[in-house]
Amino acid sequence: MKKEIDSDKAFIRLNNVAKYYEMGESVVKAVDGVSIDIKRGDFVAVMGPSGSGKSTAMNLVGSLDMPTKGHIFLDGEDISSLNESELAQVRGKNIGFIFQQFNLIPTLTVFENVVLPMALQGVPQYEREEKAEKILRRLDLLDRREHYPNQISGGQQQRVAIARALANDPEVILADEPTGNLDTKTGLKVMDFLTELNKEGRTIVFVTHSPELAKKYAHTIYWLKDGKIERVTKERKK
Amino acid sequence: MNYFILAYRNLRKKGIRSYLTLLGICIGIFAVVSLITLSNGLKLAVGSQFGVSSTELITVEGAGNGFGHPGSGQVNPLTQRDLQEIEKLSSVKAAVGRVIVAGKIEFNNKVVFGYATNIPSGKDRDILYQQIEAKTAVGRLLKDSDSGKILLGYNFYANKVGLGREIVPGNKVNIQGRDFEVVGIVEKKGSFIFDNIVFMNERDIESLYGSIEEWDFINVLPRDKKEIDKTKEDIEKLLRRLRDVKVGEEDFTVSTPEASLEQVNSILNAITIFIIIVASISIFVGAIGIINTMTTSVLERRKEIGIMKAIGATNRQIFMQFFIESGVLGLIGGAIGVIFGVVLGYFGIIGINNFIGAEIQPQISIYLIFFALLGSFLIGAIAGILPAMRAAKQNPVEALRG
Questions:
Q1: Could you list the residue range(s) of the whole structural domain that residue A121 is in?
Q2: pTM of whole model > 0.80?
Q3: What's the mean pLDDT when you consider all of chain B?
């Protein structure tokens, strides 16, 4: 395993992290001793075939899941020792999630879906509504603000999901197969937008099984296989 | 974070199945609200039927006498001697014998059957007028010198007795074949008995029905109204001796308005307790229904819980969301129950009014509605505690898988 990243500048660090699941008698090693250092402002792709543990790794980075072994640091803080409520705070304030299935709340409008993460953080109503409007305008979704998720297209839903991920101005955006449910053209638009966010200084980590996508957009690619990092490659971008 | 808006959004999408489980809460709250409204009305109605607001009046009746109406069927009626002896008691200020007779009333070429009651002469007249708080709406009260004259209950004036038109002082009304001149109409009492009766001087009743030997009941005014219970005991002792009966075998009853009201109220209270038990069971079943609905809802919305957690919802926030939603679910059931309860209570009172001729204003208590709604919200919320805890404890990764 190549180690090319200056660990002192690591923004997200996985230190020999493992995640095991008990399935009856046997133990599934979804992630098995992974160490990753991600610099602030990096654009990272996690590549691998299905079952390689890339989604599990993503969940660990996003503090959705707790590692069985090892430590995870976010901006120097060991999040693997936090309780559930503190983890929720970390997720709410520092991380924006984008999912393959969009995962919008079906009973809320586009606008309310974007407002929700801010409401959960106790942002005052006036402030959060103004912010939501600003973000929706940026994503060209203002005319859809009163629509429900099932009333808009997949591409629009993923844009709403991105808007929601941006609500609390997180430093990290985690995207799990963000283009998986979109046609090629719409998918590329989503990736272009993530690039734009990266240029603003946000750290982007996305999971994909498409080497083309990874190579086209990511600066750093982690190749996972059987829960371990197979190799790390750097892509030179113009 | 407005949990009520979230709850409203989620409940709006719920199917009819979820709302059917509210039936229990709905029926329970309905029963409580309608019953309390009705029973408050009934208590007022019963109170008004005594027609006498004077709490210092003791009523003595012979055995077998029904409540209020004529003396027929009395096994052992009250006699003139009973009346005279009661009057002699030291604790009694005055005693007035009363009869109610049935008869044919003819006016405006129409005939109805009604009741007439006697007005005694002399000082007993004043006592009776005072006891029944007799005031006229029009015309005047009867005097000792009146003969062939009558005083009528309010319903004759209001044309509610079936004689085709209102009767006013000066009109002639034929009773049992003899013409009587109306001198006055008694003020409205809101009581079926008082508003439909014909008041006649005792002599006129005797001229129609023969001399009065027996009394349907005797009104007794105690010397000291604070000693009303002692007076009551004195009368009972006296009548047991006069009529030669033992304690517990009395062929008469001596009652005070308060005691009678208490009796009615205790029956109403027993009914209230019964309904409250039924309502409680219904509410309990309703609460189980809500637990069931909310548990299903938590399972159905696992993915949503996962999303909420991913975007920063704490366990407490998830708990509150389901807790409040469950409370609102209970509140909806309660609100429907309150609406139906108020409607039944309201029309029930109107029905009672029509049935017994009373004029009770339906009393819709704001407090009752407020506490019924608060209660149903709390029942729902409490029923939601376990499902909400379950929702809060979901592992985000597993929940996101759906």
A1: 42-55+84-234
A2: no
A3: 85
